Amino acid sequence: MAISLNKGGNLSLTKSDPGLKKISVGLGWDVRQTEGADFDLDASCFLTGETGKVRSDADFIFYNQLQTPDGTVQHTGDNLTGEGEGDDESIIVDLANISADIFKLAFTVTIHDAQARSQNFGQVAEAFIRVVNVDTNNEIVRYDLSEDASTETAMIFGEVYRNAGEWKFRAVGQGFAGGLGPLAQNFGVHI
Amino acid sequence: MRGQKIKLADSTQSLQLRAGIGAQSAALSFDISCFGVDASGQLSDDRYFVFYNQRTSPEGALRMVGSQSGDAETFEIDLSKLPATIQKLVFALTVDGAGEMKSLQSGYFRLEADGQEIARFPFAGSDFGAEKAVIVAEIYKKDVWRLSAVGQGFAGGLSALLKNFGGEELEAKQPESVPISPVVAPPIPIPIAATPTQPKVNLGKVTLDKKGEKTAISLIKGGGVQPFRVNLNWEAPAKKGFLASLTGSAPDLDLGCMFRLKNGRGGVIQPLGNYFGSQSSEPFIYLDKDDRSGAAQDGENLTIFRPDEIDLVMIFALIYEGAADFTSVNGRVTLKDQNGNEILIRLGAPERGLGFCAVATIRNVGGHIEITKEEQYFKGHMEADQRFGFGFNWKAGSK
């Protein structure tokens, strides 16, 4: 049974799901029924060291860079419309084998071309992001973007981080001004 | 702004709300409606589609109360009375007839609680393109009641909007209970005098359901000009309680018309002042009787004997006594020709406190008689005349 965290809340993934090795962070939303440009939401992941910055640009996983060189973090591909049931985009993380100097993975959702299309999360129907155990298909935590985000166009949804030998998850739920570009710069990516 | 969401509880503890929608445009005319939908966003109960032909939900939790406080339409909402199955109220603005939302000058959605405005969402034509229907805002329940400024629409208009709520299926299942006529029907020519050798085109009953809707009767004919008859009927409400005998004479409604002939002559035909008109001389319009109670089977009848002579006739109904307004009398006006074609106009959207209803206008437009449902309510003759521009002199009278 999935746990729904409040903003700022955290949860030990290791304790919630003791056999956990690989997670899938899934993003879903509904296809636009109304007139106008499609809603194109993008899931991205920033792998950071102790400083909260990426080690290099290779640690920024998004639609144009679908995996890390070691393959421990993989984006399953860009979905432009939200068509289809379940997760529309997902990022799979091999927690068991991820490099030891990665302390935190920040998962973000941005709306592609939000400004030009004058779109924000409040207009997108049934947007969610969730963490699933890949081996058991057990959903560990879910976050409903359409209720907790409204006029934002970029959001740090949550982060998975190391804490005393465990993997934990924190519901960040923080909006971010600007799109994916400024967000990436914030994490130390060279854009 | 568009996409913004709030929890109502952050602004008010009240569940009694007033929602107002405004829309300004020189080029467009609008319909405003509200869909009460279930948790899956479907209109599973068509009684919760509140629109011009169905102005209130069964228990009265959702009521369309007309244009108030500057709004184009105001809704009174009692969320505490809504059945649990209704999880979302979707407020929609649709273009009636031709035009696109981009021609909208300005519009807004606003929400009031305890007389205080708690939210306002302005929008403009620049937010839209070819849409003919726009979901303006939604009040919905997700743990708690929330408001979302939507401002997104459908190029396909009200029918695309209905489809979005599963209304298409519903239309097919229950065509009787949802008389949706989002598009003004093109004038339907009703041949008024078919020759006996030709099969008659009998359209049966045409119902003009909404203001401004039109139909036409052709004057192209084989023989002479065919008269047609206008009938007003109403009901005396059942009397309740012992006070009824003290207060209650049955409502007395009068049928009448203001007319202007093609030769410029004008006047008023009505029981008040005993001006019943004439069959054989100008204005060739005749009122048959004054039914004082609604008890007569066939109500009151006005016959227009020479529709080819008229320029403009405005049919009106007024309450002479026994009721304050049209809300309790279930007024119906029918227009019939001699071939059994019938046009029904229900006085379905009465306004409180106004005892004069301009029901329909009849215009002679190049050989066609065009009948337009007006259903506009006024205090009296003079105010109605100002609207329709006959320019008569008015003084008080009685019968």
Structure description:
- The complex is a heterodimer of chains A (191) and B (399).
- Chain A has helices at 13-16, 145-148, 180-186, and strands spanning 10-12, 22-28, 41-48, 60-61, 73-75, 89-94, 104-111, 128-133, 139-144, 154-163, 166-175.
- With 191 residues, chain A is mostly beta strands.
- In chain A, strand 10 and strand 11 form a beta hairpin.
- The longest helix of chain A is centred in the C-terminal third of the chain and has 7 residues, at 180-186.
- In chain B, 7% of the residues lie in helices and 41% in strands.
- Chain B has 4 helices and 24 strands.
- Chain B has helices at 157-164, 167-173, 244-247, 381-388, and strands at residues 5-7, 16-24, 29-37, 49-50, 62-66, 73-78, 88-96, 106-113, 116-123, 133-142, 144-154, 189-191, 205-208, 214-218, 228-233, 252-261, 266-269, 285-287, 300-304, 310-321, 332-336, 342-346, 356-365, 368-378.
- In chain B, strand 16 (252-261) and strand 17 (266-269) form a beta hairpin.
- Chain B is elongated, with a radius of gyration of 23 Å.
- The termini of chain B are far apart.
- Mean pLDDT of chain B is 80; it is low at 169-204, 219-224 and 239-247.
- The interface between A and B is medium-sized, with 14 and 21 residues.
How many helices of chain B does DSSP assign?
Answer: 4
Quick one: how many beta strands of chain B?
A: 24
List the quaternary state of the chains. Answer: heterodimer
Mean pLDDT of chain B: 80
Count of discrete alpha- or pi-helical segments spanning 4 or more residues of chain A: 3
Give the tally of β-strands of chain A.
11
Topology:
The complex is a heterodimer of chains A (191) and B (399).
Chain A: E1 10-12, H1 13-16, E2 22-28, E3 41-48, E4 60-61, E5 73-75, E6 89-94, E7 104-111, E8 128-133, E9 139-144, H2 145-148, E10 154-163, E11 166-175, H3 180-186
Antiparallel strand pairs in A: 1-11, 2-6, 2-8, 3-4, 3-7, 5-6, 7-10, 8-9, 10-11
Chain B: E1 5-7, E2 16-24, E3 29-37, E4 49-50, E5 62-66, E6 73-78, E7 88-96, E8 106-113, E9 116-123, E10 133-142, E11 144-154, H1 157-164, H2 167-173, E12 189-191, E13 205-208, E14 214-218, E15 228-233, H3 244-247, E16 252-261, E17 266-269, E18 285-287, E19 300-304, E20 310-321, E21 332-336, E22 342-346, E23 356-365, E24 368-378, H4 381-388
Parallel strand pairs in B: 12-14, 13-22
Antiparallel strand pairs in B: 1-11, 2-6, 2-8, 3-4, 3-7, 5-6, 7-10, 8-9, 10-11, 14-24, 15-19, 15-21, 16-17, 16-20, 18-19, 20-23, 21-22, 23-24
